[in-house]
Amino acid sequence: MNRIRQLSVLPLLIVYWLAGNAVAQEATSHAAAALDTTKIEQLTGAKGKLDNAENVFRVTVPRSDLSVTVAGVKMTPATGFTSWASFTPAGDKTMVMGDMVLAEDQINPVMTVALENGIEVTALHNHFLWDSPKVMFMHIGGTGDADTLATGIGKIFTKIQETSDSKPKDKPKSLDAAKTSLDPKLLEQILGTPLERAGEVYKVTIGRTTQMDGHTIGKTMGVNTWAVFAGSDDKAIIEGDFAVLETELQSVLKSLRASGIAITTIHNHMVGESPKIVFLHYWGEGRASDLAKAFKAALDTQPKS
Questions:
Q1: Other CB atoms within 10 A of residue 254 CB
Q2: For 198-229, what is each residue's pLDDT tens digit?
């Protein structure tokens, strides 16, 4: 009889044990998902607010140092000129996403700081027309250690503060593209591909392919990386567009910035393509050969297709 009673109690003990273990696991999960908001504020140097419903902690830095008008309307930080970064648990890691409000001269110094500190740059574009001074928005993201991400965001905010100057700077006229005299043969040797004459300048176009609506589209449909060279051998400019896969974006950005090439926009040209293609536009000034080497180095970060 006692043996029977012991056997009948055993399933209940198992149920209680499983329930207790589930509660313990849930408590551990909640503990792991907790954000150290005080430390995030300390490392980013910015004040934040916790959204309990989504478990997201968002820090903000209003760009009150900028005096911006849009179509003649005096704007304030609350009208879309506030830099922010949001942190949320992602399994045993932390995810960050954000948007940095930048004057033109701040874009590339701030981007370099982001790329050097474990923060990905995911888009760069305008949010307004007729804004004066011109303001651009750099979207960022990353997943990893919370302290590392918060430290990276803090360095971005610091760089924005260090480079803050609401007065737009005029670029001196450096050359006339219509008077290009550079030697294309030297550039072709560096690039390993021929250049074509396009008016008064030289251009190289490298095609890629993707699929849209079941059809292959490529170089002539606009899925391409290109560069234009103008000026002289000693004083030249390069400008153009890289077509990259999402997995290639960060390596190309890092390569171009390491060579002193400025990134001017990062965005999509299409919707619904597979694989997705991201386009980044760039600008550089210097010796023609150095610019060609910078372009080639960025190309070489992409897998050969």
A1: 17
A2: 999 999 999 999 999 999 999 999 999 999 99
Instruction: Name the percent of the chain lying above pLDDT 70.
Output: 86
Q: How far apart are CA 139 and CA 21, in angstroms?
A: 42
- Picking from 31, 91, 102, 34, the residue whose alpha carbon sits closest to that of residue 63 is 102
* DSSP helix, strand, coil percent of the chain (3-state; round to 5): 35, 35, 30
**pLDDT (mean) for 231-259:** 98
DSSP states of 180-220 as a string?
----HHHHHHHHTS--EEETTEEEEEEE--EEETTEEE-GG
Query: Tokens 């609401």 appear where?
Result: 166
pTM: 0.86
Q: Please say whether the beta carbons of 75 and 132 come within 8 A.
A: no
Amino acid at 74: K
Per the listing, tokens 């009208």 go with 79
List domains and CATH numbers for the chain.
Answer: 37-162 (3.30.1460), 177-299 (no CATH)
**pLDDT at residue 171 greater than cutoff 80:** no
| Dist. CA 264–CA 282, nearest whole Å | 5
**What DSSP character marks residue 278?**
E
SS3 297: helix
| Predicted local distance difference test score (pLDDT) of residue 165 | 78
Q: What are phi and psi of 4, to 5 degrees?
A: -65, -45
Query: Whole-angstrom Cα distance, residue 263 to residue 283?
Result: 6
Q: How many CA atoms does the CB half-sphere of 15 hold within 13 Å?
A: 5
* Cα separations in angstroms, 1 against 8, 10, 106, 226: 11, 15, 83, 87
Q: What is the per-residue pLDDT for 154?
A: 98
Q: Can you give the pLDDT at residue 29?
A: 41
